[in-house]
Request: fold
Amino acid sequence: MAQRDTRRLDEDDVRNRPTRHGSRARTKQRPAHDDAATGMVVTVDRGRFTVLLDGIADGAGVLLTAMRARELGRSAIVVGDRVGVVGDLTGAADTLARIVRLEPRETVLRRTADDNDPYERVIVANADQLLIVAALADPPPVYGLIDRCVVAALSAGLEPILLLTKADLASPEEVLANYAELDIPAIVTSRGADLAPIMAVLDSHVTVFVGHSGVGKSTLVNALVPGAARSTGVVSEAGKGRHTSTSVFALALPEPAHGWVIDTPGVRSFGLAHVSADDVLWAFPDLEDGAAQCPGSCEHLSAADGCKLDAWVAAGHSTPTRLDAFRRLLVSRKDLGGAIPLP
Reply:
């Protein structure tokens, strides 16, 4: 067979293959979606987001399912986020809208898997309170986890509130005394107790509920929001709570109250790799000026290491109990590699 003389080929002999995406030039410009409806993400489940649209013409919100638009890339979308949505906004069965815009967040509650994990996990956005639920018995309170939740709340700009359950099984005095110097609001309750004091704290706020499994958190949510149907379970014989909630879920408080309850799965650890000593110090304004006198690398744990806070307290600018509380939170932030084991 004679070989073709490639020196005599011209452009008409070149085989043109159609491109996969056609000949249209690519562009980085994205549609503005100025007409997107706005709403709040209330659940996240395997890449699908349940969004409650803001009240529209008839004054009622619409609950719909949406997916993330490609232009958002890998941006994390979590419960509490305010988003812009386009597409089918009827909320009818088997319809799917698109989230095309993520509004700026006012607050972000984060945690890491442990204190050496550089990857921060955003739990909830735009909340203003963190209700730390702890049982007084069965299982007993885990101070390390409570301390870490306090640090996480303060560093995120949320107001920490301590809710002590099962007061019919044990006295709350020891726990209350342990947090007296932190000026954290505390509520004590038991099964069947009046919910009015709790509802008063929740009214007109977006409150995240957090606590390890078995403390009665889901039972409380079901009582506060009839119809919530959050799963509940019993405490195992080993004293460790069974995980009863498996997802983050925002629930509107029933009228006449206004606000949201955001329930989270029971946690066994609360890593704080993203929190610095200065974040904790923000909650102790009486110690801030004293800490400013410390060396730049000071961890504020001991006068032997150059910390000036002991002298600051000795001069009467704060109290030893406040300094002890501050250092306890610092130690809790680093203790046990982020894992707070249950009893």
Observations:
- The helical segments are 143-156, 173-178, 196-202, 217-224, 277-281, 285-291, 309-314, 320-334.
- The mean pLDDT is 81.
- The longest strand covers residues 37-45.
- The domain at 37-102 is CATH 2.40.50.140 (OB fold (Dihydrolipoamide Acetyltransferase, E2P)).
